[in-house]
Model the fold of this input.
Amino acid sequence: MQVSRCRRVVLASLLALGMARAGVAQEASPVPEGAPQQPEAPAAPAQPADAPPAPEQRLVIHGYFSQAYANSEDHQLIGVPDDGTFDYRRMALLFRGNLTSKDSLVVQLAQRRLGDSPTMALEPDVKVDWTFYEHRFSTGTSVRVGRIPNPLGIYSEIRYVGTLLPFYRAPYNFYQEGSFTSENVDGLRVTQAIAANRPWNAEISVFGGGFSMIESYAGQVNEAHTNNALGGQLWVNTPVDGLRLGLGGDFFDTKNTILSSSGQDQWKTWIASFDLSRTRFRLRSEYSEIHIKQAEFVDKAFYVYGGLNLTDKLVAHAQYDDSKAILGKGEATVELPQFYRDTTLGLSYAFRPSIVAKTEYHFAKGRLIEDEAVPLGPSQGPFKGNYYILSLSASF
Amino acid sequence: MKRLVLLAVALTSLTAAAPGGTGDGFEVIVNKQNPVASLSKDFVSRAFLKKVQKWDNGWGIVPVDQDQASPARSAFSKVVHGKPAAAVVAYWQRQIFAGNDVPPAEKPDDAAVVAFVKSTPGAVGYVSGSAPADVKVVSVE
Done:
Protein backbone atom coordinates (compact mmCIF):
# COMPACT_ATOMS: atom_id res chain seq x y z
CA MET A 1 0.00 0.00 0.00
CA GLN A 2 2.84 2.42 0.93
CA VAL A 3 4.63 1.63 -2.33
CA SER A 4 1.46 2.30 -4.27
CA ARG A 5 0.96 5.68 -2.49
CA CYS A 6 4.58 6.61 -3.14
CA ARG A 7 4.15 5.77 -6.79
CA ARG A 8 1.08 8.02 -7.00
CA VAL A 9 2.96 10.91 -5.41
CA VAL A 10 5.88 10.54 -7.82
CA LEU A 11 3.52 10.31 -10.77
CA ALA A 12 1.59 13.37 -9.66
CA SER A 13 4.80 15.34 -9.17
CA LEU A 14 6.07 14.41 -12.60
CA LEU A 15 2.76 15.35 -14.16
CA ALA A 16 2.75 18.70 -12.43
CA LEU A 17 6.33 19.44 -13.46
CA GLY A 18 5.72 18.41 -17.06
CA MET A 19 2.57 20.48 -17.40
CA ALA A 20 4.26 23.55 -15.97
CA ARG A 21 7.25 23.34 -18.35
CA ALA A 22 5.04 22.49 -21.32
CA GLY A 23 2.96 25.54 -20.51
CA VAL A 24 6.04 27.74 -20.59
CA ALA A 25 7.26 26.12 -23.83
CA GLN A 26 3.86 26.65 -25.41
CA GLU A 27 4.13 30.36 -24.68
CA ALA A 28 7.40 30.36 -26.62
CA SER A 29 6.18 28.13 -29.45
CA PRO A 30 7.01 29.20 -32.99
CA VAL A 31 5.17 32.25 -34.25
CA PRO A 32 5.38 33.98 -37.60
CA GLU A 33 8.64 35.85 -37.71
CA GLY A 34 8.45 39.34 -36.26
CA ALA A 35 4.71 39.07 -35.51
CA PRO A 36 3.51 40.90 -32.42
CA GLN A 37 2.34 38.83 -29.46
CA GLN A 38 0.45 39.55 -26.31
CA PRO A 39 2.89 41.98 -24.67
CA GLU A 40 4.06 41.11 -21.19
CA ALA A 41 5.16 44.69 -20.47
CA PRO A 42 3.33 48.00 -20.90
CA ALA A 43 3.11 49.29 -24.48
CA ALA A 44 6.54 50.23 -25.76
CA PRO A 45 7.36 53.68 -27.08
CA ALA A 46 7.34 53.95 -30.85
CA GLN A 47 10.73 53.95 -32.56
CA PRO A 48 10.57 54.92 -36.22
CA ALA A 49 12.45 52.66 -38.57
CA ASP A 50 14.26 55.60 -40.19
CA ALA A 51 15.48 57.10 -36.92
CA PRO A 52 19.01 58.53 -36.94
CA PRO A 53 21.70 55.91 -36.46
CA ALA A 54 23.40 55.36 -33.13
CA PRO A 55 26.10 57.98 -32.43
CA GLU A 56 28.97 55.56 -33.08
CA GLN A 57 27.58 54.87 -36.56
CA ARG A 58 26.96 58.50 -37.57
CA LEU A 59 30.46 58.93 -38.98
CA VAL A 60 32.36 55.80 -39.89
CA ILE A 61 35.87 55.64 -41.29
CA HIS A 62 37.25 52.65 -43.16
CA GLY A 63 40.33 52.13 -45.27
CA TYR A 64 42.48 49.71 -47.16
CA PHE A 65 46.13 49.46 -48.08
CA SER A 66 48.09 47.22 -50.44
CA GLN A 67 51.85 47.47 -50.74
CA ALA A 68 53.72 45.33 -53.25
CA TYR A 69 57.13 44.54 -54.66
CA ALA A 70 56.92 43.79 -58.39
CA ASN A 71 59.62 42.58 -60.76
CA SER A 72 59.56 41.71 -64.44
CA GLU A 73 61.79 39.10 -65.99
CA ASP A 74 61.24 40.45 -69.49
CA HIS A 75 59.61 43.55 -70.99
CA GLN A 76 57.77 46.07 -68.83
CA LEU A 77 54.03 45.64 -68.62
CA ILE A 78 51.68 47.58 -66.31
CA GLY A 79 54.52 49.50 -64.70
CA VAL A 80 56.59 46.47 -63.62
CA PRO A 81 60.26 47.09 -64.53
CA ASP A 82 62.97 44.46 -64.93
CA ASP A 83 64.92 45.87 -61.97
CA GLY A 84 61.96 45.65 -59.59
CA THR A 85 59.98 48.33 -57.77
CA PHE A 86 58.42 48.96 -54.37
CA ASP A 87 56.53 51.90 -55.86
CA TYR A 88 53.51 49.67 -56.34
CA ARG A 89 50.74 50.58 -53.97
CA ARG A 90 47.06 51.27 -53.60
CA MET A 91 45.43 52.78 -50.56
CA ALA A 92 42.19 54.54 -49.72
CA LEU A 93 40.32 56.13 -46.84
CA LEU A 94 36.54 55.97 -46.93
CA PHE A 95 34.41 58.33 -44.85
CA ARG A 96 30.75 57.52 -44.48
CA GLY A 97 28.34 59.91 -42.82
CA ASN A 98 25.01 58.28 -42.02
CA LEU A 99 22.55 61.15 -41.78
CA THR A 100 19.63 58.78 -41.22
CA SER A 101 19.19 55.06 -41.85
CA LYS A 102 18.27 55.99 -45.43
CA ASP A 103 20.62 58.88 -46.22
CA SER A 104 24.39 58.69 -46.47
CA LEU A 105 27.27 60.82 -47.62
CA VAL A 106 30.35 58.91 -48.77
CA VAL A 107 33.79 60.27 -49.59
CA GLN A 108 36.77 58.11 -50.60
CA LEU A 109 40.29 59.49 -51.02
CA ALA A 110 42.91 57.29 -52.61
CA GLN A 111 46.45 56.95 -53.83
CA ARG A 112 47.74 54.64 -56.54
CA ARG A 113 51.37 54.02 -57.43
CA LEU A 114 52.04 51.91 -60.52
CA GLY A 115 55.81 51.55 -60.61
CA ASP A 116 57.40 52.82 -63.83
CA SER A 117 54.11 53.09 -65.76
CA PRO A 118 54.00 56.20 -67.97
CA THR A 119 50.49 56.86 -66.61
CA MET A 120 52.10 58.01 -63.34
CA ALA A 121 52.87 61.31 -65.08
CA LEU A 122 49.16 62.14 -64.89
CA GLU A 123 48.32 60.40 -61.60
CA PRO A 124 47.89 62.79 -58.63
CA ASP A 125 49.40 61.94 -55.25
CA VAL A 126 45.95 61.87 -53.68
CA LYS A 127 42.72 61.79 -55.61
CA VAL A 128 39.02 61.83 -54.89
CA ASP A 129 37.81 58.37 -55.84
CA TRP A 130 34.20 58.96 -54.83
CA THR A 131 32.09 61.63 -53.28
CA PHE A 132 28.38 61.03 -53.38
CA TYR A 133 25.09 61.35 -51.56
CA GLU A 134 22.81 58.32 -51.45
CA HIS A 135 19.16 57.97 -50.53
CA ARG A 136 17.50 54.58 -50.09
CA PHE A 137 13.75 54.30 -50.53
CA SER A 138 11.68 51.65 -48.80
CA THR A 139 10.75 50.28 -52.25
CA GLY A 140 14.25 48.81 -52.69
CA THR A 141 15.32 51.77 -54.82
CA SER A 142 18.47 53.72 -54.15
CA VAL A 143 19.79 56.85 -55.82
CA ARG A 144 23.38 58.07 -55.79
CA VAL A 145 24.44 61.45 -57.07
CA GLY A 146 27.99 62.78 -57.24
CA ARG A 147 31.18 60.97 -58.12
CA ILE A 148 30.03 57.39 -57.90
CA PRO A 149 31.76 54.01 -58.30
CA ASN A 150 31.44 52.48 -61.76
CA PRO A 151 29.16 49.46 -61.15
CA LEU A 152 30.14 47.33 -64.17
CA GLY A 153 31.47 43.87 -63.37
CA ILE A 154 32.22 41.61 -60.40
CA TYR A 155 35.20 43.57 -59.10
CA SER A 156 34.49 47.05 -60.33
CA GLU A 157 33.56 48.68 -57.05
CA ILE A 158 36.23 46.79 -55.07
CA ARG A 159 38.95 46.48 -57.70
CA TYR A 160 41.70 47.77 -55.41
CA VAL A 161 40.66 46.27 -52.09
CA GLY A 162 43.51 43.83 -51.59
CA THR A 163 41.88 41.85 -48.79
CA LEU A 164 39.03 40.96 -51.15
CA LEU A 165 41.01 40.26 -54.34
CA PRO A 166 42.71 36.94 -55.12
CA PHE A 167 45.71 38.73 -56.69
CA TYR A 168 47.21 42.19 -56.36
CA ARG A 169 44.86 43.56 -58.99
CA ALA A 170 41.58 42.61 -60.67
CA PRO A 171 41.84 40.83 -64.07
CA TYR A 172 43.71 43.26 -66.29
CA ASN A 173 42.01 42.78 -69.65
CA PHE A 174 38.59 43.33 -68.15
CA TYR A 175 39.32 46.08 -65.61
CA GLN A 176 42.55 47.65 -66.93
CA GLU A 177 44.84 49.48 -64.55
CA GLY A 178 45.81 53.09 -64.82
CA SER A 179 44.69 53.63 -68.41
CA PHE A 180 41.69 53.13 -70.69
CA THR A 181 39.41 52.81 -67.69
CA SER A 182 37.60 54.91 -65.15
CA GLU A 183 36.68 53.58 -61.75
CA ASN A 184 34.09 56.30 -61.26
CA VAL A 185 31.46 58.39 -62.99
CA ASP A 186 30.50 61.98 -62.19
CA GLY A 187 26.75 61.74 -62.40
CA LEU A 188 23.81 59.73 -61.19
CA ARG A 189 23.08 56.09 -60.49
CA VAL A 190 19.69 54.53 -59.79
CA THR A 191 19.52 50.98 -58.46
CA GLN A 192 16.40 48.86 -58.03
CA ALA A 193 16.17 45.56 -56.17
CA ILE A 194 13.70 43.13 -57.73
CA ALA A 195 12.01 40.32 -55.78
CA ALA A 196 14.56 40.79 -53.00
CA ASN A 197 13.12 38.07 -50.75
CA ARG A 198 12.69 35.42 -53.46
CA PRO A 199 15.16 32.63 -54.33
CA TRP A 200 15.52 34.23 -57.77
CA ASN A 201 16.07 37.94 -57.29
CA ALA A 202 17.77 40.69 -59.20
CA GLU A 203 19.30 44.09 -58.95
CA ILE A 204 19.48 46.53 -61.83
CA SER A 205 21.52 49.74 -61.93
CA VAL A 206 21.41 52.50 -64.51
CA PHE A 207 23.98 55.27 -64.47
CA GLY A 208 24.93 58.29 -66.49
CA GLY A 209 27.38 61.15 -66.43
CA GLY A 210 30.97 61.89 -67.33
CA PHE A 211 34.52 60.95 -66.46
CA SER A 212 38.15 61.34 -67.44
CA MET A 213 40.31 58.49 -68.66
CA ILE A 214 44.08 58.27 -69.02
CA GLU A 215 45.27 56.90 -72.35
CA SER A 216 48.71 55.38 -72.74
CA TYR A 217 49.82 54.26 -76.18
CA ALA A 218 53.15 53.92 -77.97
CA GLY A 219 54.96 56.14 -75.51
CA GLN A 220 52.24 58.82 -75.40
CA VAL A 221 50.17 59.60 -72.30
CA ASN A 222 46.99 61.62 -72.54
CA GLU A 223 43.76 62.34 -70.70
CA ALA A 224 40.49 61.95 -72.59
CA HIS A 225 37.08 63.07 -71.32
CA THR A 226 33.44 62.20 -71.76
CA ASN A 227 30.28 63.98 -70.62
CA ASN A 228 27.58 61.70 -71.97
CA ALA A 229 28.25 58.21 -70.59
CA LEU A 230 25.21 56.00 -70.16
CA GLY A 231 25.28 52.47 -68.85
CA GLY A 232 23.62 49.72 -66.88
CA GLN A 233 24.34 46.58 -64.91
CA LEU A 234 21.96 43.72 -64.18
CA TRP A 235 22.72 41.11 -61.52
CA VAL A 236 20.59 38.00 -61.14
CA ASN A 237 21.01 36.08 -57.89
CA THR A 238 20.02 32.44 -58.30
CA PRO A 239 18.72 29.89 -55.78
CA VAL A 240 22.11 28.15 -56.00
CA ASP A 241 24.12 29.32 -53.00
CA GLY A 242 26.69 31.92 -54.05
CA LEU A 243 25.82 31.92 -57.77
CA ARG A 244 24.96 35.09 -59.61
CA LEU A 245 24.98 36.12 -63.25
CA GLY A 246 25.51 39.56 -64.68
CA LEU A 247 25.00 41.55 -67.88
CA GLY A 248 26.03 45.11 -68.44
CA GLY A 249 27.42 47.74 -70.70
CA ASP A 250 27.94 51.37 -71.36
CA PHE A 251 28.50 53.79 -74.25
CA PHE A 252 29.93 57.26 -74.44
CA ASP A 253 31.70 59.78 -76.69
CA THR A 254 35.27 60.80 -75.89
CA LYS A 255 36.98 64.11 -76.48
CA ASN A 256 40.70 64.84 -76.59
CA THR A 257 41.51 61.22 -77.37
CA ILE A 258 44.78 60.13 -78.99
CA LEU A 259 43.09 57.14 -80.57
CA SER A 260 41.64 59.04 -83.50
CA SER A 261 42.99 61.83 -85.68
CA SER A 262 39.96 64.02 -84.93
CA GLY A 263 40.44 63.76 -81.18
CA GLN A 264 36.90 62.40 -80.82
CA ASP A 265 35.52 58.90 -80.74
CA GLN A 266 32.60 56.70 -79.64
CA TRP A 267 32.94 53.74 -77.26
CA LYS A 268 30.52 50.88 -76.75
CA THR A 269 31.15 48.13 -74.18
CA TRP A 270 29.25 44.93 -73.41
CA ILE A 271 30.02 42.55 -70.56
CA ALA A 272 28.77 39.23 -69.18
CA SER A 273 29.68 37.83 -65.77
CA PHE A 274 29.57 34.52 -63.93
CA ASP A 275 30.29 34.46 -60.21
CA LEU A 276 30.15 31.37 -58.01
CA SER A 277 31.48 32.15 -54.54
CA ARG A 278 31.42 29.56 -51.78
CA THR A 279 33.24 29.40 -48.48
CA ARG A 280 35.78 26.81 -49.68
CA PHE A 281 36.11 27.73 -53.36
CA ARG A 282 35.33 30.39 -55.92
CA LEU A 283 34.85 30.25 -59.69
CA ARG A 284 34.52 33.43 -61.74
CA SER A 285 34.53 34.36 -65.38
CA GLU A 286 33.77 37.50 -67.35
CA TYR A 287 33.66 38.43 -71.02
CA SER A 288 33.84 41.90 -72.52
CA GLU A 289 33.72 43.53 -75.92
CA ILE A 290 34.83 47.09 -76.50
CA HIS A 291 34.13 48.82 -79.82
CA ILE A 292 35.88 52.11 -80.53
CA LYS A 293 34.40 53.52 -83.70
CA GLN A 294 36.75 56.11 -85.23
CA ALA A 295 39.83 54.17 -84.17
CA GLU A 296 38.31 51.11 -85.87
CA PHE A 297 39.37 49.06 -82.88
CA VAL A 298 37.60 46.14 -81.24
CA ASP A 299 38.84 44.40 -78.10
CA LYS A 300 37.42 41.04 -77.06
CA ALA A 301 38.54 39.79 -73.68
CA PHE A 302 37.70 37.12 -71.15
CA TYR A 303 39.13 35.60 -68.00
CA VAL A 304 38.50 32.51 -65.93
CA TYR A 305 39.48 32.39 -62.27
CA GLY A 306 39.46 29.58 -59.72
CA GLY A 307 40.31 29.79 -56.01
CA LEU A 308 40.49 26.93 -53.52
CA ASN A 309 40.88 27.13 -49.74
CA LEU A 310 43.69 24.75 -48.84
CA THR A 311 43.14 25.64 -45.16
CA ASP A 312 41.02 28.27 -43.41
CA LYS A 313 43.75 30.84 -44.06
CA LEU A 314 45.70 29.59 -47.09
CA VAL A 315 44.13 29.88 -50.53
CA ALA A 316 45.47 28.79 -53.93
CA HIS A 317 44.52 30.89 -56.97
CA ALA A 318 44.72 30.37 -60.72
CA GLN A 319 43.56 32.63 -63.50
CA TYR A 320 43.70 32.75 -67.29
CA ASP A 321 43.17 36.20 -68.79
CA ASP A 322 43.26 36.73 -72.56
CA SER A 323 42.21 39.24 -75.17
CA LYS A 324 42.48 39.87 -78.87
CA ALA A 325 42.28 43.12 -80.76
CA ILE A 326 40.74 43.62 -84.17
CA LEU A 327 41.96 46.62 -86.17
CA GLY A 328 40.33 48.12 -89.22
CA LYS A 329 37.15 47.00 -90.88
CA GLY A 330 35.98 45.13 -93.91
CA GLU A 331 38.75 43.62 -95.99
CA ALA A 332 41.37 45.63 -94.14
CA THR A 333 40.60 43.89 -90.84
CA VAL A 334 43.63 42.66 -88.94
CA GLU A 335 43.39 40.43 -85.88
CA LEU A 336 45.96 40.72 -83.10
CA PRO A 337 45.68 37.72 -80.78
CA GLN A 338 47.32 37.80 -77.33
CA PHE A 339 46.74 41.53 -77.09
CA TYR A 340 47.40 40.83 -73.42
CA ARG A 341 47.55 37.23 -72.25
CA ASP A 342 48.27 36.37 -68.64
CA THR A 343 48.25 33.02 -66.84
CA THR A 344 48.59 33.70 -63.14
CA LEU A 345 49.27 31.36 -60.26
CA GLY A 346 49.27 32.56 -56.68
CA LEU A 347 48.89 31.87 -52.99
CA SER A 348 47.33 34.10 -50.36
CA TYR A 349 47.54 33.75 -46.61
CA ALA A 350 45.02 35.54 -44.39
CA PHE A 351 46.56 36.19 -40.98
CA ARG A 352 43.06 37.44 -40.29
CA PRO A 353 40.34 38.58 -42.74
CA SER A 354 41.73 42.11 -42.61
CA ILE A 355 45.42 41.24 -43.19
CA VAL A 356 46.41 39.16 -46.21
CA ALA A 357 49.81 38.36 -47.74
CA LYS A 358 50.07 37.24 -51.38
CA THR A 359 52.59 35.88 -53.81
CA GLU A 360 51.79 35.58 -57.50
CA TYR A 361 53.55 34.83 -60.77
CA HIS A 362 52.30 36.07 -64.11
CA PHE A 363 53.17 34.26 -67.31
CA ALA A 364 52.37 37.31 -69.41
CA LYS A 365 52.62 38.48 -73.00
CA GLY A 366 51.34 41.69 -74.48
CA ARG A 367 51.48 44.08 -77.39
CA LEU A 368 51.47 47.36 -75.42
CA ILE A 369 54.80 47.13 -73.70
CA GLU A 370 55.98 50.23 -71.86
CA ASP A 371 59.76 50.06 -72.16
CA GLU A 372 59.64 50.59 -75.93
CA ALA A 373 57.36 52.81 -78.04
CA VAL A 374 55.88 50.11 -80.25
CA PRO A 375 52.80 50.90 -82.34
CA LEU A 376 50.15 48.24 -82.72
CA GLY A 377 50.50 46.00 -85.70
CA PRO A 378 50.62 42.37 -86.75
CA SER A 379 54.39 42.43 -87.14
CA GLN A 380 54.95 43.77 -83.61
CA GLY A 381 54.73 41.32 -80.72
CA PRO A 382 53.29 39.91 -78.63
CA PHE A 383 56.20 40.54 -76.27
CA LYS A 384 57.03 38.42 -73.28
CA GLY A 385 56.62 40.20 -69.97
CA ASN A 386 56.58 37.58 -67.18
CA TYR A 387 56.57 39.17 -63.75
CA TYR A 388 55.93 38.41 -60.11
CA ILE A 389 54.35 40.39 -57.27
CA LEU A 390 54.71 40.00 -53.52
CA SER A 391 52.16 42.03 -51.60
CA LEU A 392 50.64 42.70 -48.22
CA SER A 393 47.09 44.01 -47.90
CA ALA A 394 45.21 45.33 -44.92
CA SER A 395 41.79 46.86 -44.38
CA PHE A 396 39.75 48.21 -41.49
CA MET B 1 7.59 0.85 -12.01
CA LYS B 2 8.47 0.42 -15.64
CA ARG B 3 5.36 2.34 -16.63
CA LEU B 4 6.36 5.11 -14.26
CA VAL B 5 9.80 5.40 -15.84
CA LEU B 6 8.35 5.41 -19.32
CA LEU B 7 5.91 8.11 -18.36
CA ALA B 8 8.69 10.20 -16.82
CA VAL B 9 10.75 9.89 -20.00
CA ALA B 10 7.77 10.90 -22.15
CA LEU B 11 7.03 13.98 -20.06
CA THR B 12 10.68 15.03 -20.04
CA SER B 13 10.94 14.79 -23.82
CA LEU B 14 7.87 17.02 -24.18
CA THR B 15 9.60 19.77 -22.30
CA ALA B 16 13.17 19.29 -23.55
CA ALA B 17 13.34 22.47 -25.67
CA ALA B 18 14.00 25.32 -23.30
CA PRO B 19 12.50 28.63 -24.35
CA GLY B 20 15.04 31.02 -25.79
CA GLY B 21 18.52 30.16 -27.12
CA THR B 22 19.59 27.34 -29.36
CA GLY B 23 21.90 25.34 -27.15
CA ASP B 24 24.63 25.97 -29.77
CA GLY B 25 26.92 28.22 -27.72
CA PHE B 26 24.88 31.44 -27.78
CA GLU B 27 21.52 32.90 -26.95
CA VAL B 28 19.78 35.53 -29.05
CA ILE B 29 18.44 38.44 -27.04
CA VAL B 30 16.18 41.42 -27.70
CA ASN B 31 15.01 44.35 -25.66
CA LYS B 32 12.36 43.46 -23.09
CA GLN B 33 9.90 45.81 -24.77
CA ASN B 34 10.13 43.87 -28.02
CA PRO B 35 7.03 41.65 -28.27
CA VAL B 36 8.66 38.87 -30.35
CA ALA B 37 9.28 35.54 -28.62
CA SER B 38 10.64 33.39 -31.44
CA LEU B 39 12.47 34.06 -34.68
CA SER B 40 13.57 31.99 -37.64
CA LYS B 41 17.26 31.60 -38.41
CA ASP B 42 16.66 33.18 -41.81
CA PHE B 43 15.14 36.29 -40.24
CA VAL B 44 17.97 36.65 -37.72
CA SER B 45 20.58 36.15 -40.45
CA ARG B 46 18.94 38.74 -42.68
CA ALA B 47 18.64 41.16 -39.77
CA PHE B 48 22.36 40.92 -39.04
CA LEU B 49 23.19 41.34 -42.74
CA LYS B 50 20.87 44.36 -42.76
CA LYS B 51 18.73 42.83 -45.50
CA VAL B 52 15.64 43.32 -43.35
CA GLN B 53 15.28 46.68 -41.64
CA LYS B 54 12.14 46.54 -39.53
CA TRP B 55 10.35 44.44 -36.97
CA ASP B 56 6.73 43.69 -37.81
CA ASN B 57 5.58 46.42 -35.48
CA GLY B 58 7.51 49.03 -37.45
CA TRP B 59 10.47 49.40 -35.12
CA GLY B 60 13.87 49.68 -36.76
CA ILE B 61 16.02 46.58 -36.27
CA VAL B 62 19.37 47.43 -34.66
CA PRO B 63 21.66 44.37 -34.76
CA VAL B 64 24.76 44.27 -32.57
CA ASP B 65 27.62 41.85 -33.19
CA GLN B 66 30.45 40.72 -30.97
CA ASP B 67 34.15 41.03 -31.66
CA GLN B 68 35.39 38.99 -34.63
CA ALA B 69 37.50 36.75 -32.39
CA SER B 70 34.65 36.02 -29.98
CA PRO B 71 33.64 32.34 -29.61
CA ALA B 72 30.00 33.46 -29.39
CA ARG B 73 30.33 35.20 -32.75
CA SER B 74 31.92 32.12 -34.28
CA ALA B 75 29.08 29.92 -33.03
CA PHE B 76 26.42 32.44 -34.04
CA SER B 77 27.86 32.80 -37.51
CA LYS B 78 28.02 29.06 -38.16
CA VAL B 79 24.54 28.32 -36.86
CA VAL B 80 22.60 31.37 -38.03
CA HIS B 81 24.46 32.48 -41.18
CA GLY B 82 25.62 28.98 -42.09
CA LYS B 83 29.10 30.41 -42.77
CA PRO B 84 32.26 30.98 -40.76
CA ALA B 85 32.71 34.43 -39.28
CA ALA B 86 35.51 35.20 -41.77
CA ALA B 87 33.08 34.81 -44.68
CA VAL B 88 30.64 37.25 -43.10
CA VAL B 89 33.51 39.69 -42.49
CA ALA B 90 34.38 39.44 -46.21
CA TYR B 91 30.73 40.16 -47.08
CA TRP B 92 30.88 43.32 -44.99
CA GLN B 93 34.20 44.38 -46.46
CA ARG B 94 32.57 44.23 -49.89
CA GLN B 95 29.58 46.25 -48.69
CA ILE B 96 31.83 48.85 -47.05
CA PHE B 97 34.16 49.38 -49.97
CA ALA B 98 31.39 49.39 -52.56
CA GLY B 99 29.97 52.29 -50.53
CA ASN B 100 26.80 50.35 -49.78
CA ASP B 101 26.59 50.03 -46.03
CA VAL B 102 28.50 49.44 -42.81
CA PRO B 103 28.35 46.37 -40.56
CA PRO B 104 26.48 46.24 -37.25
CA ALA B 105 28.23 47.72 -34.25
CA GLU B 106 30.66 45.34 -32.57
CA LYS B 107 30.81 45.01 -28.81
CA PRO B 108 33.73 43.45 -26.96
CA ASP B 109 31.84 41.04 -24.71
CA ASP B 110 28.50 39.75 -23.46
CA ALA B 111 28.09 42.50 -20.87
CA ALA B 112 28.47 45.21 -23.51
CA VAL B 113 25.96 43.49 -25.78
CA VAL B 114 23.45 43.20 -22.94
CA ALA B 115 23.89 46.87 -22.03
CA PHE B 116 23.30 47.88 -25.65
CA VAL B 117 20.23 45.68 -26.13
CA LYS B 118 18.79 46.79 -22.79
CA SER B 119 19.00 50.46 -23.77
CA THR B 120 17.91 50.12 -27.43
CA PRO B 121 14.28 49.07 -28.04
CA GLY B 122 14.86 47.67 -31.55
CA ALA B 123 18.15 45.96 -30.79
CA VAL B 124 18.93 42.27 -31.34
CA GLY B 125 22.16 40.63 -30.19
CA TYR B 126 23.59 37.40 -28.87
CA VAL B 127 25.50 36.31 -25.79
CA SER B 128 27.56 33.24 -25.00
CA GLY B 129 26.09 32.40 -21.62
CA SER B 130 22.73 32.73 -19.99
CA ALA B 131 21.31 36.17 -20.52
CA PRO B 132 20.39 38.26 -17.47
CA ALA B 133 16.77 39.00 -16.68
CA ASP B 134 16.86 42.57 -17.97
CA VAL B 135 16.82 41.41 -21.60
CA LYS B 136 14.57 38.90 -23.32
CA VAL B 137 15.88 35.64 -24.75
CA VAL B 138 14.21 34.56 -27.98
CA SER B 139 14.29 31.08 -29.43
CA VAL B 140 15.76 30.73 -32.91
CA GLU B 141 14.55 27.91 -35.11
Q: What stands out?
A: The domain at 17-140 of chain B is CATH 3.40.190.10 (D-Maltodextrin-Binding Protein; domain 2). Chain B has one domain: 17-140. Chain B has a mean pLDDT of 85. The CA atoms of residues 45 and 81 of chain B lie 5 Å apart.
